[in-house]
Amino acid sequence: MTEYTPPKVWSWNKPSGGQFASINRPIAGPTHEKELPVGRHPLQLYSLGTPNGVKVTIMLEELLALGHHGAEYDAWLIRISEGDQFGSGFVDVNPNSKIPALMDRSGPTPIRVFESGAILVYLAEKFGGAFLPAKGASRAECLSWLFWQVGSAPFLGGGFGHFFAYAPAKIEYAIDRFAMETKRQLDVLDRRLAESEYIAGDTYTIADMAIWPWYGQLVQGSLYGAGEFLSVEDYKNIRRWAGVLADRPAVKRGLMVNRTSGEPSRQLHERHDASDFETKTQDKVRAGG
């Protein structure tokens, strides 16, 4: 490995390399003017079917399954590889230019909510505490695990996932460093799920919705193609829990929304009505020309 000596002052003077080099930059703010579309439902979601995006679409589909009709939503596709997140309209909703971003237009003044964990808490509280215990130890446990995910997943995604799957070169030190931390996190979860049916206890909560798209999909082999490398078969308790969540109809629907890869029948680029799951998946769109 070539030795690198950092300069006294870092400057942005060359592409960063890797799959996302065209959109990486050290400054915030919009790069172009572009208004966001607005549909007919109270909730407007601007997202992509990454693990962070899936958290919110699962929550919305679970709320609808509970009968919360006010949770009807339009899900608009934000193609991050094309820089949609740097459009002026999106930056107005999320100044951090990351998906997902939500606009709640159900009241007289629209409310913006950004960062996936914040959106989960906002929606839970908006709909009467759905999937979020109201008080005491149960609420503390749920929020603790939710923020465990918020703090831990960057080591899995931006750390392990980046260097294992996306970096322009395989760097042994970086892969080893983040593989070690990812496996430590998996062990944390596996130990927890050895003593608890769900992440926060006996009840399915937003903590499960936050953690499953990252760690559940990882142990099921659908994240970074890293299942064998990380020996995910060893984490029996996570795999049990991941399978239970994967079988939930709302999770299956949430996983389809804003998805742009994989089996066309499981891709629903935009969601504006419940019937879209039956009529507007990519296999049907392509068949219809």
Measured as a percent range, the helix fraction is 40-55%
Overall geometry comes to: globular
Low-confidence stretches: none
Strand numbers in spatial order across the main sheet: 2-1-3-4
Mean pLDDT over the residues: 96
Gyration radius (Cα, Å) is: 20 Å
- Biggest sheet architecture: 4 strands, mixed
What is the assembly state of the chains in this entry? single chain
The SSE order reads: EHEHEEHHHHHHHH
Distance between the termini: 50 Å
Short description:
With 289 residues, the protein is of the alpha+beta class.
Task: Describe the protein's architecture and organization.
With 289 residues, this protein is α+β, with helices and mostly antiparallel strands. 45% of the residues lie in helices and 6% in strands. It has 10 helices and 4 strands, in the order βαβαββαααααααα. The protein has helices at 51-65, 88-93, 116-126, 136-166, 172-195, 206-219, 236-246, 249-256, 276-279, 282-287; strands at residues 43-47, 73-77, 101-104, 111-114. The protein has a 4-stranded mixed sheet with strand order 2-1-3-4, covered by helices on one side. A hairpin with a 6-residue loop joins β3 (101-104) and β4 (111-114). The termini are far apart.
Topology:
Blueprint: E1 43-47, H1 51-65, E2 73-77, H2 88-93, E3 101-104, E4 111-114, H3 116-126, H4 136-166, H5 172-195, H6 206-219, H7 236-246, H8 249-256, H9 276-279, H10 282-287
Parallel strand pairs: 1-2
Antiparallel strand pairs: 1-3, 3-4
Helix pairs in contact: 1-3, 1-6, 1-8, 4-5, 4-6, 5-7, 6-7
What labels would you give this structure?
single chain, 289 residues, four-stranded mixed sheet, 4 strands
